[in-house]
Design brief:
Layout lengths: L8 H10 L7 H11 L4 E4 L5 E3 H17 L7 E5 L5 H12 L2 E5 L5 H10 L4 E5 L7 H8 L8 E5 L12 H7 L14 E6 L9 E5 H17 L7 E4 L7 H13 L2 E3 L6 H10 L4 E4 L1 H14 L10 E4 L6 H11 L2 E8 L4 E7 L6 E3 L4 E6 L12 E7 L10 E7 L15
Parallel strand pairs: 3-4, 3-5, 4-7, 5-6, 9-10, 9-11, 11-12, 12-13
Antiparallel strand pairs: 1-2, 7-8, 13-14, 14-15, 16-17, 17-18
Helix pairs in contact: 2-3, 3-4, 3-7, 5-6, 8-9, 10-11, 11-12
């Protein structure tokens, strides 16, 4: 294990007894979803690959079996460096099945970036493309492998270019390896994923997530997306960044839990985003509000008829925005725009979510204890503005007590027209 979690045993027992914590892991949740939605489309990418829950689950089981055969044990770190390809989801689920810890790195990380990041977490395996957009990832990882003492396993995805060496590809592994015969034993309080903030206020903050943390995060983001009208008939276009940033992965988890089809577009390349949204029939758009406007303006510039899109709702966050921006987005994209709030220190997106009434964001009080403090650091009366302070109630990998968010807001327990009873 890359970290030893020190959890108060008395609190641990109490939280289990009260039902705050369970022994379910994110793997357990995924396998239930995959079984229930086996024939339903799960992921699609811009290379024409479309896969169902069942197909992803089978391929992931075979890749997980190969990882285990190569000596990957529960707690070992597997580094993933992918473009926005469907194969990323196979590798991601395979890590859950093998009990590995996922380190997802952006594809623009060069050799020096990879060396630093992988040594930092003592990565034991790397899965990435042979080549993409002129970058030879195969030679890049081979060139630094000797500088990462713990690295023992490398696998490639030859989607855009054939491999140049005898390294195995994910396609070869899936075609020649039998699925896992038995579940790899893992505990819900083992670290399963490493993510971080964007670093806009200084050095990025890294957050550790146990498997149960990921399960809870998935549940909360699923609730949040449901408030925006997303369900198992939706096609969710995610244009938040992936990699270490929590935005893309958090929304991805929630959409997956709801049984929606997911398009993991990530950020950038606006023209491609528009093509994906139209071709795949996206009904929900998830990104920053400023990028939603960027997309809408690009549609106008390209003469794209908005009626050709099937968009119905949008979930926007990760930056401040105003009511005038909301009005502009809704008018330009013909959707209902909803605000989502989160912090990496808490878990990521899904700490609070706006409902159809749009009269404030519901904070999930079964997972977070919110307080509003005035300028003297005293509790502010209900309805009065002050600094939002949050205590985590179910976070295990990195629990926080009275974390100061530096965000100014107010809190109300008044009934909401939507019927949700969580505070706003």
């Amino acid at each position: 294990m890359i970290t030893d979690l020190k959890i108060n045993e008395e609190k641990k027992k109490e939280y289990y007894e009260k039902g705050y914590w369970t022994h379910d892991t994110i793997r357990d949740v995924w396998e239930r979803q995959a079984q229930a939605n086996a024939d339903k489309e799960y992921v699609a990418d811009d290379q024409g690959c479309r896969m169902t829950y069942g197909e992803v689950d089978d391929a992931a089981s075979r890749l997980a079996a190969w990882l285990v055969s190569q000596g990957i044990k529960p707690g070992d770190v597997v580094t993933l460096q992918f473009p926005n390809w469907a194969e990323f989801t196979i590798a991601y689920v395979a890590c859950f099945k093998a009990g590995a810890v996922i380190q997802s790195l952006a594809r623009n990380f060069n050799g020096a970036d990879l060396t630093y990041a992988m040594n930092l977490v003592e990565s034991r395996a790397y899965i990435g493309p042979t080549s993409f957009h002129g970058v030879d990832y195969e030679q890049q990882i081979l060139g630094i492998a000797g500088d990462i003492p713990t690295l023992k396993v490398i696998a490639l995805v030859d989607k855009k270019a054939p491999k140049q060496t005898d390294l195995p590809t994910v396609a070869e592994i899936v075609a020649t390896t039998e699925p896992l015969a038995e579940k790899v034993p893992v505990e819900s309080d083992q670290v399963a994923c490493l993510l971080s903030t964007s670093g806009t206020t200084g050095k990025p903050t890294v957050a550790a997530y146990t498997r149960e943390d990921l399960d809870n995060w998935t549940e909360l983001t699923a609730r949040s997306l449901a408030l925006a009208g997303i369900d198992d008939t939706s096609v969710v276009h995610i244009a938040y960044g992936y990699g270490l940033f929590t935005g893309g992965m958090g929304v991805h988890y929630g959409a997956e839990r709801l049984g929606a089809a997911v398009v993991p577009a990530s950020g950038g390349n606006t023209q491609r985003q528009l093509t994906l949204m139209e071709d795949f029939g996206a009904t929900a758009l998830c990104c920053t509000p400023s990028y939603a406007i960027n997309l809408a303006e690009a549609m106008q510039e390209k003469g794209v008829d908005i009626s050709r899109m099937q968009l119905k709702t949008g979930v926007f966050g990760a930056e401040p925005w105003s009511e005038s921006m909301r009005t502009r987005i809704e008018k330009m994209l013909h959707i209902q725009a909803h605000d989502i709030y989160g912090l990496t220190e808490m878990m990521g997106p899904g700490v609070a979510m706006e409902c159809e009434a749009k009269q404030g964001l519901h904070i999930w009080e079964d997972a977070f204890l919110p307080e509003i403090l005035d300028e003297k650091q005293q509790a502010a009366p209900e309805g009065e503005a002050g600094e939002l302070v949050i205590t985590t109630l179910v976070k295990r990998g990195m629990p926080l007590l009275r974390y100061r968010t530096h965000d100014i807001t107010c809190l109300t327990h008044a009934p909401c027209p939507c019927g949700c009873t969580h505070a706003r």
